């Protein structure tokens, strides 16, 4: 039984959906006020009544039943008390029965959702700036699948542009096969950085690079072979990180995939009279929408990032017939997305409304910002490895005799990186701190993982009995049960708001409530008649935390 939903469905506010009401229902900080509270303030305006009057009227319409034991109206809030025994029975039996599926649903059955995320640039470092798009996108991908959607993960590779001409030029001048084969992205990046340094002295290099790029475009075999090789090397390097972070894609169609699909977009724009010339370039004027023009072709006839994105959107609609297409990309690109979404709308693509830019804030390391061109970049791989190492040292100190220390350190270190990136509302800029994300007492994944290990340790000493009595739960138990009952709704609203942070915060909330229960109530030593119930509650907590963490891509060690 989903208590919040059960209550939400019984609150009749005209024109407001049960989902919206569900999102407004809160658990009051002081349980004596009720188990759930519904604030009526925001309806005062539309209903032209005071919140106090609204609460009173709603109260009169909601009878108590076997689930809702009491409804009261207090200062503009509608407060609900639920039957705790019913809550306990319903919640525990559902979680233990559904197991790894608890929280999943078929909400998205028959719907397709494309997710463009991570979208790395070939031969460029996979740096800390790509952390958010990768883990946010990965989490959303899992969440939507869990909700029954047909999710299509797309890595829109940055594999097009003059930088590949630069790279070939640099490779021909200063590189060799062995060096690049061994060094991977790092070696390619060094070549790229050197090219920029040397081109400052010798501008002829830029002409050479342009000529090489042209040869790629014209299908020159040698240049394309080099380019494909750079691509393979990059993806091989990046795959190591994807494996650690449990990231998967269904398509790697990148920008160059659209080379031959742009002409039809340009033709259509011209046919529809949207293309105008401006200083030799072909643009779509967006002044009427308060935006600078969207450039479609440069004066030399070359295409742009936006041109390729338009071809990609049209291709995706045709190929996947998506209900929604999400772009998990930093907010720096806000304008880019607004522009090409608008151009597609002007072309009469009614599905342009289904394109969503899921924007997120910047991640920086405590040490400060970095730039690719100058070469002082922080590789994501290094950040992850450093977290794993630090985790190893902490674990080794706390529990030197633990088996599988390497594996546990990997789960803890990787979890710390993911959770660190997902814990805050996605639009916030964050500063990544190793000490903060690895704090055992903080709002961290390791705190949650440690809580899981604690629960697992209890359960390794006693099994949940096949049947048990459910007593009137105490406050700690009731609070934990309410939190566990909220998981399905948390997953749904995380998907609706594209906010995996809801799930990360939820994990910490459940872990805190479990720990309070663990320290205040005896479990193994509890008297008969309570013990079975408490063991079941422990097992249910572990199950829910496992489900929640796995949606974020975080593993749970058995022991810590
Ligand atoms: N490769 C781009 C970058 O790193 C991100 C691409 C995002 N996806 C898209 N369809 N534009 O900046």
Could you explain how this protein is built, in words?
The chain has 560 residues and is α/β, with parallel strands linked by helices. It has 3 domains: 3-82, Arginyl tRNA synthetase N-terminal domain (Gyrase A, domain 2, 2-Layer Sandwich); 112-260 and 304-365, 3-Layer(aba) Sandwich (Rossmann fold), CATH 3.40.50; 388-425 and 434-552, Isoleucyl-tRNA Synthetase, Domain 1 (Orthogonal Bundle), CATH 1.10.730.10. It has 21 helices and 12 strands. It has helices at residues 3-8, 18-24, 44-47, 51-61, 84-98, 131-146, 163-174, 177-201, 204-217, 221-245, 263-271, 305-320, 334-346, 380-398, 405-422, 434-437, 445-461, 475-485, 487-496, 501-520, 531-552, and strands spanning 36-39, 68-74, 77-82, 112-116, 150-154, 275-278, 281-284, 294-297, 324-330, 355-360, 363-365, 430-432. The chain has a 4-stranded parallel beta sheet, sandwiched between helices. The protein has a 3-stranded antiparallel beta sheet with strand order 1-3-2. Strands 6-7-8 form a 3-stranded antiparallel beta sheet. α6 links the parallel β4 and β5 (150-154). α5 packs across α18 and α17 packs antiparallel against α21 (531-552). Arginine binds next to α12 and β9.
Topology:
Layout: H1 3-8, H2 18-24, E1 36-39, H3 44-47, H4 51-61, E2 68-74, E3 77-82, H5 84-98, E4 112-116, H6 131-146, E5 150-154, H7 163-174, H8 177-201, H9 204-217, H10 221-245, H11 263-271, E6 275-278, E7 281-284, E8 294-297, H12 305-320, E9 324-330, H13 334-346, E10 355-360, E11 363-365, H14 380-398, H15 405-422, E12 430-432, H16 434-437, H17 445-461, H18 475-485, H19 487-496, H20 501-520, H21 531-552
Helix pairs in contact: 5-18, 7-8, 7-9, 8-10, 9-10, 12-13, 14-15, 17-20, 17-21, 18-20, 18-21, 19-20, 20-21
């Amino acid at each position: 039984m989903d208590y919040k939903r059960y209550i939400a469905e019984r609150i009749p506010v005209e024109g407001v959906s049960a989902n919206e009401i569900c999102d407004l229902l809160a658990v009051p900080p002081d349980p004596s006020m009720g188990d759930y509270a519904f604030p009526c303030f925001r309806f005062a305006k539309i209903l032209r009544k005071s919140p106090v009057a609204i609460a009173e009227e709603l109260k009169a319409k909601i009878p108590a039943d076997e689930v809702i034991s009491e409804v009261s109206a207090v200062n503009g809030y509608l407060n609900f008390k639920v039957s705790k025994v019913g809550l306990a029975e319903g919640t525990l039996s559902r979680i233990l029965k559904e197991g790894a599926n608890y929280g999943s649903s078929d909400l998205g059955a028959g719907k397709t959702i494309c997710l463009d995320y991570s979208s790395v640039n070939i031969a460029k470092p996979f740096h800390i700036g790509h952390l958010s798009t990768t883990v946010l996108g990965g989490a959303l991908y899992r969440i939507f699948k869990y909700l029954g959607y047909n999710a299509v993960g797309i890595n829109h590779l940055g594999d097009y542009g003059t930088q590949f001409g630069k790279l070939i030029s640099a490779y021909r001048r200063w590189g060799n096969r062995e060096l690049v084969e061994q060094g991977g992205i790092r070696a390619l990046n060094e070549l790229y950085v050197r090219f920029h340094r040397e081109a400052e002295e010798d501008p002829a290099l830029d002409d050479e690079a342009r000529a090489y790029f042209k040869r790629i475009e014209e299908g020159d075999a040698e240049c394309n072979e080099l380019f494909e090789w750079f691509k393979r090397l990059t993806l091989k390097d990046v795959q190591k990180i994807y494996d650690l972070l449990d990231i998967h894609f269904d398509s790697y169609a990148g920008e160059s995939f659209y080379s031959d699909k742009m002409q039809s977009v340009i033709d259509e724009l011209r046919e529809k009279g949207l293309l105008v010339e401006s200083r030799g370039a072909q643009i779509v004027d967006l002044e009427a929408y308060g935006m600078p023009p969207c450039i479609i072709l440069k004066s030399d006839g070359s295409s742009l990032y936006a041109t390729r994105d338009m071809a990609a959107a049209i291709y995706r609609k045709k190929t996947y017939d998506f209900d929604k297409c999400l772009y998990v990309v930093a907010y720096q690109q806000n304008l880019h997305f607004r522009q090409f979404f608008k151009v597609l709308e002007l072309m009469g693509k009614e599905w342009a409304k289904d394109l969503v830019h899921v924007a997120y804030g910047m991640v920086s390391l405590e040490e400060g910002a970095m730039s690719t061109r100058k070469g002082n970049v922080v590789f994501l791989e290094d950040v992850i490895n450093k977290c794993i190492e630090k985790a190893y040292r902490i674990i080794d100190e706390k529990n030197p005799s633990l088996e599988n220390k390497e594996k546990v350190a990997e789960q803890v270190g990787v979890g710390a990186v993911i959770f660190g990136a997902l814990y805050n509302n996605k639009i916030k800029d964050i500063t990544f701190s190793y000490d903060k994300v690895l704090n055992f007492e903080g709002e961290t994944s390791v705190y949650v993982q440690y809580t899981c290990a604690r629960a697992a340790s209890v359960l390794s000493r006693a099994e949940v009995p096949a049947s048990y009595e459910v007593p009137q739960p105490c406050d700690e138990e009731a609070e934990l049960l309410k939190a566990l009952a909220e998981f399905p709704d948390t997953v749904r609203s995380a998907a609706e708001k594209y906010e995996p942070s809801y799930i990360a915060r939820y994990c910490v909330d459940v872990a805190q409530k479990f720990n309070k229960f663990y320290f205040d109530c005896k479990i193994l030593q509890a008297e008969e008649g309570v013990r079975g119930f408490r063991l079941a509650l422990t097992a249910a907590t572990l199950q829910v935390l496992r489900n929640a963490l796995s949606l974020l891509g975080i593993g749970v060690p058995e022991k810590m």
